[in-house]
Amino acid sequence: MAFVNDVRFAADKRAILARLRAVLPPGALLADEEELRPYECDGLTAYRALPLLVALPQTEAEVQAVLRACHDLKVPVVPRGAATGLSGGAMPHEDGVVLSLARFRKILRIDPLARTAIVQPGVRNLAVSEAAAPFGLYYAPDPSSQIACTIGGNVAENSGGVHCLKYGLTVHNVLKVRGFTVEGEAVEFGAAGLDAAGLDLLAVINGSEGLLAVITEVTVKLTPKPELAQVVLAYFDDVQKAGNAVADVIAAGIIPGGLEMMDKPATHAVEPYVKAGYDLEAEAVLLCESDGTPAEVAEEIERMKAVLEKSGATSLVVSRDEAERLRFWAGRKAAFPAVGRITPDYLCMDGTIPRKRLAEMLEAIADLSAKYGLRCANVFHAGDGNLHPLIMYDANQPGELERATAFGAEILELSVRLGGTVTGEHGVGVEKIDVMAAQFTAAEIEAFHRLKAAFDEKGLLNPGKGVPTLARCREYLQTRAGIAPSSVSSDAAPRF
Amino acid sequence: MDAVLKEWADRVRDAAERQGKLRIRGGGSKDFYGGAPAGETFDTAGFRGIVAYEPTELVVVARAGTPLAELEAALAEQGQCLPFEPPHFGYPAVLGATAGSGATVGGMVAAGLSGPRRATVGAVRDYVLGVRLIDGRGELLAFGGQVMKNVAGYDVPRLMAGSLGTLGLIAEVSLKVLPLPVAVRTLRFSIDEATALSRLNEWGGRPLPLAASVWHEGALTVRLAGARAAIEAAQAALGGEVVADDVAAAFWQSVREQTHPFFAGSEPLWRLSLASTTPPMGLGPQLIEWGGALRWLRGDQGAERMRAVAAQAGGHATLFRGSEALKAAAGAFQPLPPALLQIHRRLKAAFDPQGVFNPGRMYPDF
Ligand SMILES: Cc1cc2nc3c(=O)[nH]c(=O)nc-3n(C[C@H](O)[C@H](O)[C@H](O)COP(=O)(O)OP(=O)(O)OC[C@H]3O[C@@H](n4cnc5c(N)ncnc54)[C@H](O)[C@@H]3O)c2cc1C
After folding, report:
1. Which of A81, A201, A323, A328 is the most buried (most CB within 10 A)?
2. Can you tell me the distance from the alpha carbon of B172 to that of A143, in angstroms, rounded to the nearest whole number?
3. Torsion angle, CA of A420/B155/B32/B324, rounded to 10 degrees?
């Protein structure tokens, strides 16, 4: 399906090519169609566009020069990390340049005493934890894509992971970001200490989806590795019971290291692929982790087991050793690719809702699955109320993508109605740009545009993404009102 | 829309039209903080109360004028808390006073200040999930919400934390809360500053249930918080002398509220936020918090010197308390580099084009 970017620019490929050739070394600029092709999409493969050029700078001076040239010529720039993003954030702009940070691959410094790592944006998430491991430290946010995704992309999306219930999101684990404005001005957000002077721009850069600045260096916090971690697998014969058990655990005053959920379609996809050892009879499984000192973990695991049993778990399995714990998690972390093996295509939703509404949402998803005639596997960051329904479809079957998209839109609109949000961690990108209108009023959308303009007056950084134009909002609301009149919140709907 | 908020929006719009200035004020407990307040007083006390609180969701929604003490009492009743221990700074100067601080929830978010436990649990901004605000055009806008993870649109709620009311009038906030720690224990060590700093940083790299730390005049005081088993293990590993619970509670309260004798008197009080590993600076009497990352200094060592030292250590220096004259001369906050200042000015113009809110409270030009 074509995403029609409604923010367009008059492009003169020759002029920008000449300018960039002058500032980049040979091999750092791609211009031929066959070289550009691999860049046409990110992890959201349903949406594609070819850029004019791809720039692969290796130094901050080169990044600055690329930005200045593009700014002069009014050419849009789309920053790109590993392109594992699931919302089309790194999808190119047809009139613009892709600025890949893939060559910024150095870990500049690990300071075990200060518990910080200074890394370039193209460093993979897992590489940071690997480099910190000899010091008994790690980088806490662990997106399931952590072997591939970059720290720059993590900051741009404010990515989460299976342990962020206890250890926080990217925004909670980043001290400082260095980068460049679209005009090529060097800027630093945050500080080596715990706060910085002035407004908290670091908080805004996190999750800004490449629309506010290009990130060229990140200082992350490192966390001491707990002495011990153990995970409880709790099986349920009913998904709603599993959903309610999540709220029960939190209600008991327990903040697990991780609290994740998979339903039967998800475990059935995962098991042949990863051999995690899940019980395939169960309708749902919760992964509930405890970490700390051995005595602390023993105590907490007992409390967790008691709550889960009371919530109706049919059986409980506690990981016996580190290898088994990692295997249990490997299944969860491989859920997306595993589902990818059993269906030609899938869409991954990312709504977040209050935990107590999980059971309700699961029921609604089952109904929608029947309504649209499409299978759906559910993988949840349950402890955070962050849902990843994976809607399976076949793009080669006429109409299936459209059905899958409509299915997804209903889930997201319901997320908003249940007091949540259309995206918990994957970002808006191009994928959720229209459904933003279900969550924000025109005045709020305008406020976002003004905030953007404070960093990027001409609107050249990743244009057409993240925040819809008002025209898009109107069109969306009109279309959805025709299809599902009750599902779109009106301007007056309270979100508090 | 609430009648009160409609009235607020009208007042803001009216001020914008006639180029008026509004000084947003909750309980006035932080009047001393930042640049001198200016403009007609806009009192938020009229919009108060906890709107929603569901302990199982770990989220509370409160109106801006809600007394912070009221919010904390409601949380404590359910065994929960604001883990970042925001200072009230308004208690009558009686040790252990717990009522009548005057501090409001809106002011807490706008001031963005966090207490002793901040280094290990995060700051105010880390717990802000959503905000309803009135911008300088008089528009009521809502950002974020009541869920833990939310990346739809820019993170305006966190931007409001510490903005000192310069971007908008905070009407209502939703905050993440946490269970109170099961157990706490305070240990004391007689060691010098350099030893304390190196121990704190070394301990910070180990999986210990550290919650807070203070070094002052040859004594390092450390608070542990967490599961009982973890505290026992940590105490065995760290040693030190156990401080009686009631004495310890009063001590931490005195640091959080700055009623500790170190903060008494009229000498300027500097707040230096730095890399935690910064070696002793020899700048005069000090109290060190946050594992070394926050250093309070007394005295008039010269703003330029303080700010140069702070910048050198990767941080910034705030003239936290001082005479109006000194503040006017030195500015309360570390000056920003030109590129950042430009973004600040544009952001101010984006949210508050007529410059209605809290002029001069953060930086002289907005
Ligand atoms: C199998 C799989 C599992 C996943 N699991 C999770 C998960 O558990 N949690 C989660 O949060 N996400 C998850 N994701 C999504 C994705 O991995 C994250 O969003 C990740 O942070 C993207 O990083 P990236 O380097 O691939 O960024 P990209 O996809 O290249 O870019 C993402 C966005 O960041 C911008 N950007 C990238 N680098 C920079 C930079 N240096 N400066 C400015 N902007 C930049 C881009 O313009 C784009 O808008 C998953 C994805 C896959 C495919």
Report:
1. A81
2. 32
3. -160
Does the CB of A225 have a partner CB in chain B at under 8 Å?
Answer: yes
Which residue in the block uniquely carries the two structure tokens 């889930």? A411
Cβ-contact A376, A390 below 8 angstroms: yes
Q: Check whether B92 has a pLDDT greater than 80.
A: no
A419: left (phi over 0), alpha (psi -120 to 50) or beta: left
**pTM, two decimal places:** 0.97
pLDDT above 50 for B111: yes
Q: What are the residue ranges of helices labelled H in chain B? A: 3-17, 68-77, 105-111, 118-121, 124-127, 156-160, 193-204, 228-238, 245-256, 303-312, 324-330, 338-351
Residue B293 falls in which region: left (phi positive, over 0), alpha (psi -120 to 50) or beta: alpha
Min Cα separation A214/chain B (Å): 14
* Rounded distance between C-alpha atoms, residue B20 and residue A465, angstroms: 37
Report residue B1's pLDDT band, with 50, 70 and 90 as the boundaries: low
Q: Which residues, in sequence order, are bridge partners of residue B216? A: B219, B287
Query: Taking 80 as the threshold, does the pLDDT of residue B310 lie above it?
Result: yes
**Encoding tokens for residue A447?**
């406020």
Cβ-count burial A416-445 (b if 16+ within 10 Å, e if not): bbbbbbbbbbbbbbbbbbbbbbbbbbeebb
> Alpha-carbon distance A18 to A6, whole Å?
27
Residue reference for tokens 């600055």: A64
Ligand 1 within 6 A of A122 CB? no
Residues of chain A where predicted confidence (pLDDT) is lower than 50: 487-494
Other residues' Cβ atoms within 10 Å of the Cβ of residue B258? 19
Contacts of A199 in chain B (CB under 8 A): 159, 162-163, 166-167, 344, 347, 362
A108 inside 8 A of chain B by CB: no
Give pLDDT, residue B313.
96
| Tens of pLDDT, residues A258-301 | 999 999 999 999 999 999 999 999 999 999 999 998 988 999 99
CB B136 within 8 A of CB B332: no
User: CA-to-CA distance for B262 and B269, rounded, in angstroms?
Assistant: 10
Q: Which one, of A280, A291, A233, lies nearest residue A261 by Cα?
A: A233
Secondary structure (3-state) at A441:
coil
- Predicted local distance difference test score (pLDDT) of residue A489: 46
Of A111, A193, A293, Cβ closest to residue B273: A193
Confidence of residue B366 (pLDDT cuts 50, 70, 90): confident
In eight-state DSSP terms, residue B127 is H
Rounded Cα distance between A151 and A217, Å, is 9
- Partner-chain contact A384 B148, CB within 8 Å: yes
B243: tokens are: 């401080």
Name the residue type at position A288: C
Strand order in the sheet with A53-55: A29-30, A53-55, A97-100, A77-80
Whether residue B38 is predicted with pLDDT greater than 90 in this model: the reply is: yes
Sequence-distant (≥ 6) Cβ neighbours of residue A327 within 8 angstroms: A274, A275, A276, A277
